[in-house]
Design brief:
The chain has 434 residues and is of the alpha/beta class. It contains 19 helices and eleven strands. Helix 3 runs parallel beside helix 10 and helix 16 runs antiparallel to helix 17.
C-alpha cells in the first residue's frame, strides 16, 4: 500500500535551490550546498536530486581533505576504470588511435611500461593530469602504496586537493561523484565546513553538499567570519523536520494500528529524518509485531523484515551510508560453512546480529551463536546482538548503541592510521607495503 503523498512545496523549493547551485558551479563559481535539518531527510533529498542526473554519490563524515578525496576516489573507481581513463587521456594527447595505448601496455613489465610512458609524456600536456595518468597506469606503484589514492597522494607530495583536481580532469564532468559531507556538533561542523570550502575553492565544478543539524549550524553561524562561513550562509537550504504525528499517520495508511509503543520510535525517526521507503519497511516490521502480539506468538517471522529495515535506515543516513552489508560473509568458515552476518561493517569490523525468540529457547541454537561470536571476535570483529522484539520498542536505544560503537571504531582506526603514518621512527611517512 503506497504512503500518503507528502506536501511537495518544501521539496520543490529545495530542488529548485539545488538546481540554482548547480548552475553556479557550471559557471565556475565555487558553490557549497548546505542541507540543514534531519540527516535522513538531507540524504533523501540529495539522492532525489541526483537520481535523474545518473550521477554517483558519496556520503562521508569527513574530518580532513584526505578523507573526503579518498572516499570520492573510491566512489569514482566503483563506476569507472581509472586506468582506462588515464590511457585514453595519454593516448589521445600522444596522437594514438582509440584503444591503442592499452594494447601496447598489455603484458609489459613494470620497466617496459615506464619506458613507454616516458616516451609518451613529452607529447602529453605538462602538469598534474599527466602525472596522475602515469601513476594510474603503473600497477606496481599502486600495489606498493596500497590503493590508487595513496599512490597519487605520494606522487603529489601528500596534497589531496591536487589529487582531486587531476583525477577530476580525467573523467567526464557528469560522471564525477557528488559528495555529501556530514557535520554534527559545532566542532565537527567547523571542521567539515573548512574541508568543504577548500574542496570547492580548488575544484569549482565539484558537486558538494554539507549536511548538518540546526543546533550545530546555529552555533557555527555565530563563530565569526571566514571563507567557509560565507559559503555556508550562501548555500544554506533549510529542511523541514517531520512530526512524529505525521509519520504515524503515514504508518496508518500501511495498516499499522496507533499505539503508545510507537511514540518513542516515531520521535526518533522524525528527529533523524526518514524516507518513505525506509518508513515503509518500518511499517512492515510494526505490522508483524502487532500481528504476533494479537495472536500470542513470538515475532521470529519478522526477523528478515527487521534486518532489511535496520540496514535501509543505516544506509539512508550520511554518517553510515555504505558502511554495512546485509547478510554478508566476513570471509571465513566455521564448522565447514561460510559464516554469514546479518549486518556486517567490514571496514570497521562490526558484526550485528538480530536474534529471535528461538535463539534463546533452543540449546543448540544458543551454542551455535556463541561459537559464531567467538570466531568473529578472533577475527577482530566487535559483535552486537539485538533482540527481534526490541527493534520497535527499543529502537532509540539500539540506534544509540550502534552510533556509539561506530564512533569508537572510527576513532580507533584514526589512531591506528596516525601511528602508521608516523612510522616506527616518527618520520611522518607511512611505511612501504612489503
Amino acid at each position: 500500500m503506497p504512503l500518503v503523498k507528502p506536501d511537495a512545496r518544501s521539496d520543490a523549493f529545495s530542488l529548485h535551490e539545488l538546481e540554482r547551485h548547480q548552475r553556479r558551479r557550471e559557471q565556475g563559481i565555487p558553490t557549497l550546498t548546505v542541507l540543514a535539518g534531519p540527516p535522513g531527510s538531507a540524504a533523501s533529498l540529495w539522492r532525489k536530486w541526483l537520481e535523474p542526473l545518473h550521477r554517483p554519490t558519496c556520503m562521508v563524515p569527513a574530518s580532513s581533505e584526505s578523507d573526503a578525496v579518498r572516499a570520492w576516489m573510491e566512489a569514482l573507481a566503483r563506476s569507472r576504470d581509472l586506468a582506462a581513463d588515464a590511457a585514453d587521456f595519454l593516448g589521445t594527447a600522444a596522437g594514438l588511435a582509440p584503444g591503442e595505448l592499452p594494447t601496447r601496455l598489455e603484458g609489459k613489465t613494470a620497466h617496459e611500461r615506464d619506458v613507454l610512458l616516458q616516451e609518451l609524456l613529452p607529447s602529453a600536456p605538462d602538469g598534474d593530469v599527466s602525472t596522475a595518468c602515469r601513476c594510474l597506469l603503473q600497477p606496481q606503484v599502486i600495489h606498493k602504496s596500497g590503493s590508487p589514492f595513496e599512490a597519487l597522494l605520494e606522487a603529489f607530495d601528500h596534497d589531496p586537493l591536487r589529487v582531486l583536481a587531476a583525477v577530476n580532469a580525467l573523467v567526464p564532468p557528469e560522471t564525477a561523484p557528488a559528495l555529501l559531507l556530514t557535520g554534527s556538533g559545532a566542532e565537527a561542523l567547523t571542521r567539515a565546513a573548512r574541508v568543504a570550502a577548500k574542496l570547492c575553492a580548488a575544484n569549482p565544478s565539484l558537486v558538494i553538499a554539507l549536511c548538518t543539524d540546526r543546533p550545530s549550524l546555529d552555533a557555527y553561524l555565530h563563530g565569526g567570519q571566514s571563507q567557509a562561513l560565507a559559503m555556508v550562509r550562501e548555500g544554506l537550504i533549510e529542511l523541514a523536520t517531520p512530526s512524529p504525528e505525521a509519520l504515524g499517520r503515514k504508518l496508518e495508511t500501511l495498516g499499522v494500528s496507533p499505539s503508545k509503543e510507537l511514540s518513542a520510535p516515531l520521535a526518533r525517526l522524525a528527529t533523524d529524518g526518514v524516507s518513505d521507503e525506509v518508513l515503509t519497511l518500518f511499517g512492515e516490521v510494526v505490522r508483524e509485531h502487532q500481528r504476533a502480539s494479537r495472536e500470542g506468538e513470538p515475532v521470529d517471522r519478522a526477523r528478515s523484515k527487521e534486518e532489511r529495515f535496520l540496514y535501509a535506515f543505516l544506509d539512508s543516513h550520511p554518517a553510515t551510508h555504505g558502511l554495512f552489508e546485509l547478510n554478508a560473509s566476513p570471509g571465513f568458515r566455521l564448522a565447514g560453512r561460510d559464516v554469514e552476518v546479518d549486518l556486517l561493517a567490514r571496514q570497521l569490523s562490526i558484526a550485528v546480529e538480530i536474534d529471535g525468540y528461538f535463539h534463546f529457547h533452543n540449546d543448540e541454537a544458543y551454542r551455535r551463536d556463541r561459537r559464531k561470536d567467538l570466531a568473529l571476535q578472533r577475527h577482530g570483529y566487535w559483535v552486537l546482538r539485538f533482540l527481534t522484539g526490541d527493534i520497535v520498542p527499543r529502537l532509540e536505544e539500539i540506534l544509540d548503541t550502534l552510533s556509539d560503537v561506530i564512533q569508537q571504531r572510527r576513532e580507533a582506526l584514526t589512531q591506528e592510521s596516525s601511528r602508521e603514518e608516523a612510522g616506527p621512527t616518527g618520520s611522518g611517512r607511512r611505511p612501504s607495503s612489503p
